[in-house]
Amino acid sequence: MDPGRFWASRSTAGKITGIIGMALGALGTGPDGINRAAVMINQAIDRDIDAQKAENAAKLAKGRAG
User: Fold this and answer.
1) In terms of pTM, does the model score above 0.70?
2) What angle do helix axes 12-27 and 36-65 make, rounded to 10 degrees?
3) pLDDT tens for residues 4-22?
4) Which residues in 32-61 are b (16+ Cβ under 10 Å) and which e?
């Protein structure tokens, strides 16, 4: 698994937007202290890792079938 694939697949504008979102999210944390932008980005990274796992499982299954 490549945990850095999410950021590597983003364009420069996408990376800048993500960083700005995290900074603004840090400034706008509520009384609970949760950075919502960071939570959303972490969820996207988790989904990307799950997709990588599914891709690898499909490749293994295809290899066994062939």
Assistant:
1) yes
2) 140
3) 888 888 899 999 999 999 9
4) eeebbbeeebeeeeeebeeeeeeeeeeeee
> Judging by beta carbons within 10 Å of its beta carbon (0-12, 13-18, 19+), is residue 22 exposed, middle or buried?
middle
Q: Using an 8 Å Cβ cutoff, are 23 and 62 in contact?
A: no
Q: What angle do CA 18, 13, 2 make, to 5 degrees?
A: 60
Counting other chains too, the contacts that 41-45 makes at CB distance below 8 Å and 24 or more residues apart are: 44/6, 45/3, 45/6
Token output for 54: 């599914």
